[in-house]
Amino acid sequence: MKLLVTGGAGYVGSFCVRGLCDRGHEVVVLDNLSAGHKEAVDPRAAFVMADLADARALETLIRDAGFDGALHFAAYLNVGESVAEPLKYYRNNVAHTVTLLELMQKYQILRLVFSSTCACYGIPAAVPITESMPQAPINPYGNTKLAMEWAMRDSARAWKLGVTCLRYFNACGAAADGSHGEDHDPEIHLIPVVLQVALEQRENVQIFGVDYPTRDGSCIRDYIHVDDLVDAHVRAIETQEPGEFRAYNVGTGVGTSVKQVVEAAREVTGHPIPAKPTARRPGDPPELYADPGKLMAELEWQPRHTDIREIIETAWAWHRSHPHGYRHA
Ligand code: UDP
User: Could you tell me if 261 and 186 lie in one domain?
Assistant: First the structure.
């Protein structure tokens, strides 16, 4: 298939581009490099540096390329920032997605895979989380992702868009050989932050809350290796039918606490990784992990990385060989 990948220079997007190229798809990446890295884009893919805000550039690309489908990753993703600057999130995430959808309708591109999030569930009434549980985000970031899902669901009904929303849990990990990985600036995600302590780039890791009603008092999350996310995207786009709306949780089904992540990173790196208990981070649900049964049953997906130590080993291979990320490799 000929596929448009928005945000294909970002973390999950760039891994998916590689996975799609491996499968023989023809990929065009559109990215404004506001957060992504040109170096992360597979050389087999064509690269267009443009902003989704530039509707004219987007239309020229879509009109001329003859895409069979699209994978939409481009979005802002910092929860704290979304609370402080919600309209920046509504503009970039929602408004620009509407532009993309309008052009997909105009040029009849009827296959889409969307990078959604478990944040759309807010604080779930129970775990593990299934797709049929209420979607009630607790921050603007989650609200914008849910609004995008709605625009897509309504488009599926109205003009036969075929769409799969993949609701990721905590994306993490790197290529097994350490050649590609996660590079955010500023870095806020737990595993890279912990590994920056092991690299002595930070003094300690703060544990945001040790008084949660969980087994060790710290938050529980479902850490899903980026390669397993790629596998879900490839299966989704290759099986997508026009007019069909699907949503899947993409997680391992295993919950791991913040303290367990830090301990596993100590074992992997051999560094003591000082940890400092601090106040809860506003908006953090105590416990989130997926029931990935629907994705397993319908797309025959199976996570290959379920051991947190092994996942951290892949991230460590990347961070050790790229202590300053892509730009200063
Ligand atoms: N976390 C932490 N210290 C940090 C970064 C994150 O204790 O420096 C916790 C955070 O409160 C959450 C978990 O680690 O419970 C995962 O956070 P992350 O930001 O990686 O992903 P999120 O769950 O917010 O998508």
Answer: yes
- Whether residue 281 has its Cβ less than 6 Å from ligand 1: yes
Q: Which atom of ligand 1 is nearest to the CA of 119?
A: 25
Distance 152 CA to ligand 1 centre (A): 29
* E-state strands within the chain: 2-6, 26-31, 46-49, 69-72, 111-117, 162-168, 170-172, 205-208, 220-221, 223-225, 245-250, 256-257, 275-278
Residues 231 and 187 in one domain: no
Same domain, 236 and 101: yes
Task: Give the Å distance between the CA of 264 and the centre of ligand 1.
Answer: 15
153 & 277 share domain? no
Quote the pTM value.
0.97
| pLDDT digits (tens), the chain, 329 positions | 999 999 999 999 999 999 999 999 999 999 999 999 999 999 999 999 999 999 999 999 999 999 999 999 999 999 889 999 999 999 999 999 999 999 999 999 999 999 999 999 999 999 999 999 999 999 999 999 999 999 999 999 999 999 999 999 999 999 999 999 999 988 999 999 999 999 999 999 999 999 999 999 999 999 999 999 999 999 999 999 999 999 999 999 999 999 999 999 999 999 999 999 999 998 789 999 999 999 999 999 999 999 999 999 999 999 999 999 997 65
For residue 281, the domain's CATH number is 3.90.25.10
Residue 121 is given by DSSP the state G
Residue with the smallest CA separation from ligand 1 atom 1 is: 190
Domain hosting 289: range is 172-221+253-328
Residue identifier of the C-alpha nearest atom 15 of ligand 1: 219
